[in-house]
Structure formats: structure tokens, C-alpha cells
Amino acid sequence: MSSEDIVYHAKAPIKEGLQAGTIGAGVGLLVSAVQNSVGTHSHGATGVVARTGSTIGVFAAMAGVFAATDAAVANVRETKDAWNSVAAGCSAGLVAGGFQRNAQTMVFGCLGMGAMMGAFDLSGSSLKGKYADMTAEQKAQWRKSQLDTK
């Protein structure tokens, strides 16, 4: 199957963002609970929200913005590739820096998250890499397609 045969199906950015934001809030709640249990304070269990609750918001906002940006960029470009992840990672890094209220953190968050998410997507969106499930013939064909200049 050539790249011309692949048909792009549009995504709903707001729906994607809300779903990912909800999952991000759950992860943030877990991280906040761990931060609360490790720290010494007089808030008790309410410290999850009172003391380290901003962690929940950061995780929710970053996940939601990442997913919404990824879907929106993919819809505009009508393709699913690493550049969508670069743009989405950059926007999530901007959000992380925004919570710090520091322009330098926003810029480096954008660059770092964009590069990291682009590299992850290029590697096959898996910690095993895109080669893990390829046959030897598929690997040779993929290498050849990457070296061909059109």
C-alpha cells in the first residue's frame, strides 16, 4: 500500500482534548496523592487538593491541549505524521511553562516537548520502535523509502 492509498479520517479536536484532559486529570490526581503522602504537612488527606492540587490541573491541561492540538493540526494537514506530534508537544510545553509563569520555561518546554514527541512518533509511537513488528523485507523496503529522494 502506497502513501497515496491512505485515506485520512478527520478527528474532533474538542472531544479528543476533553477525553485526554480527563485522563490527564486522573494521572495528576495520582501524582498529587503521591506528593501529598511523601511530604510532611498538617493538611492530612485534603492536602491532595489543598497543597498539591495544582498538579492535577497541570496534567489535565497539558494532556487536553496536546490531544486537541494533535487532532486540529492533523485535520488541517489531512495527514497523521510526526509533525502533528511536534506541534502538539510544543503546545503542551507552552502550557507547562505557562503554569510556571516564565517565558523561558515556555520556550524550552515547547522545544523540548515538541522534539521529544516528534522523536517518539517517528520511532513508531512505541517504546519498542517501528522495527519491532516488521519483517526483514518490510525493514529493507522502509529503509529504501527513507533514502529515496524524489
Automatic annotation (TrEMBL):
Keyword Disulfide bond attributed: no
InterPro entries, A to Z: NDUFA11
Protein location: Mitochondrion inner membrane
Keyword flag Membrane: yes
Gene Ontology BP term (one): mitochondrial electron transport, NADH to ubiquinone
UniProt membrane topology term: Multi-pass membrane protein
Ranges that cross the membrane: none
Gene Ontology CC terms, in alphabetical order: mitochondrial inner membrane; respiratory chain complex I
Highest taxon above the source species: Eukaryota
Keywords: Membrane, Mitochondrion, Mitochondrion inner membrane, Transmembrane, Transmembrane helix
Protein name: NADH dehydrogenase [ubiquinone] 1 alpha subcomplex subunit 11
